[in-house]
């Protein structure tokens, strides 16, 4: 048997096993345990006054937005400065 055939056979066995009541119960237990672990981690991070990964990601997104806005303001200020320089130059020339 080649690797693909072995992998396909293993996948079929796993799918059959997961389709049984015991397999379905195991999947539910794993999902419940994962959710409990996440809730426990969030509570622990909160108790330690540390941000969660979601909070850090939201903060990072806000910082990116602020950075983009600051770049836009800088670009606008540069355009205004150029226009003022052009106006000053045209006044001197007249």
Notes on the structure:
- It is built from three helices and no strands.
- The protein is mainly alpha-helical and 94 residues long.
- It has two domains: 1-50; 53-94.
- The N and C termini lie far apart (90 Å).
Instruction: Give the quaternary arrangement of the chains.
Output: single chain
Helix content: over 70%
Major sheet: size, sense and barrel closure? Answer: none
Count the domains. Answer: 2
| Integer average pLDDT | 90
Give a topology summary.
Elements: H1 3-18, H2 21-47, H3 53-93
Please sum up the structure shown.
It is built from 3 helices and no strands. With 94 residues, it is mainly α. The chain has 2 domains: 1-50; 53-94.
Keywords:
elongated, single chain, mainly alpha, 94 residues
């Amino acid at each position: 048997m080649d690797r693909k055939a072995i992998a396909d056979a293993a996948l079929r066995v796993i799918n059959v096993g997961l389709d049984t009541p015991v397999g379905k119960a195991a999947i539910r237990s794993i999902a419940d345990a994962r959710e409990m672990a996440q809730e426990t981690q969030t509570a622990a991070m909160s108790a330690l006054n540390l941000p969660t990964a979601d909070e850090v990601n939201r903060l990072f997104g806000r910082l990116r937005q602020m950075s983009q806005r600051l770049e836009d303001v800088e670009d606008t200020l540069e355009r205004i400065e150029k226009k003022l320089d052009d106006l000053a130059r045209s006044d001197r020339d007249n």
